[in-house]
Amino acid sequence: MLEFRRGLPPGDTGRGSLAHGQMVVPHTHVRGQLLYPSTGALATTTERGTWVAPANRITWTPPGFEHSHRAYGETEVRRIDLPVRLGRFLPALPSVFAVTPLLREALLALSDGRPRGPGPRHRLRGLIIDELTDAPQQELYLPEPSDDRLRSVTSLLHADPASSATLRELGRSTGASERVLSRLFQEELGVSFRQWRSMLRVQHALVLLGDGQAVTTVSARLGWANPTSFIEAFVAVVGETPGRYQIGLRRT
Asked: Does domain 13-134 have CATH number 1.10.10.10?
């Protein structure tokens, strides 16, 4: 179960906080779970990869998926558990959604700890489901490989996202050729090496931007050749510029 520094009250909704870097060990839920980081950012990891939800996104984990969490920054999390009959309206795989103003208010209201009767709780849940089914998915998803050679490469990049090493150079430490690794990226992960590394850097950029760091600083820290390249990569994954993303965070 999700353990916070300030514990959640009993029941299927609540709020709590996680310290920067705090981990939640792998676990599963009988119900589906929505987690909304109203501040900070929350990463959810399964065997399929990692989804990141910053403060203007919400993460959905279906029942039965083993997953873990990690907080980036001081992260306040709102939790909504959904029974199977409601969860069936949402994707069968972990997902991240954009949070509309109406959705945000419903999430905050349902998880604020105030006693509510079955009727109001049911209507709030229904509103949340309606908003999620209409909201665009914002995957912010980084797939993880199962092939040992590919995992060796991705582990090196996880340790140093700013690394400028080529696939050929990374392959030397794993005993696999550039050609083999390139094929594995496409066949197993469905993306190229460049795309995967870019997505990894964008996930790290979300955290740094959430800390208030300047776009040019984030670009340099994560190894992009120039801020323009960073902005283009960020827009391709997130759907908005880093600057607009930061403005949106200040409005949450």
From this structure: no
Contact assessment for residue 49 and residue 142, using Cβ atoms and an 8 Å cutoff: yes
* Contacting residues for 214 by C-beta, under 8 A, at least 6 apart: none
For residue range 17-73, what is the model confidence (pLDDT) as tens digits?
888 778 899 999 899 999 998 888 888 988 888 888 887 789 999 999 899 998 877
Domain with CATH 1.10.10.60 in the chain: 146-251
Site of tokens 């996202």: 161
Residues 6+ apart with CB under 8 A from 89: 129, 132, 133
Q: CATH 2.60.120.280 spans which residues of the chain?
A: 13-134
* pLDDT single digits (tens) 141-190: 888 898 999 999 999 999 999 999 999 999 988 889 999 999 999 999 99
Q: How much is the pTM? A: 0.74
| Alpha-helix runs per DSSP H in 11-159 | 84-87, 101-110, 118-134, 148-159
- Residues 6+ away with beta carbon under 8 Å from 83: 31, 32
- Please give the CATH superfamily to which domain 146-251 belongs: Homeodomain-like (1.10.10.60)
Instruction: Report CA-CA distances (Å) from 143 to 32, 72, 114, 205, 240.
Output: 21, 19, 38, 17, 21
Distances (CA, A) of 219 to 56, 115, 178, 194: 21, 46, 26, 16
Beta strands in 4-74 (DSSP E): 13-18, 23-27, 32-37, 41-46, 49-54, 57-61, 67-72
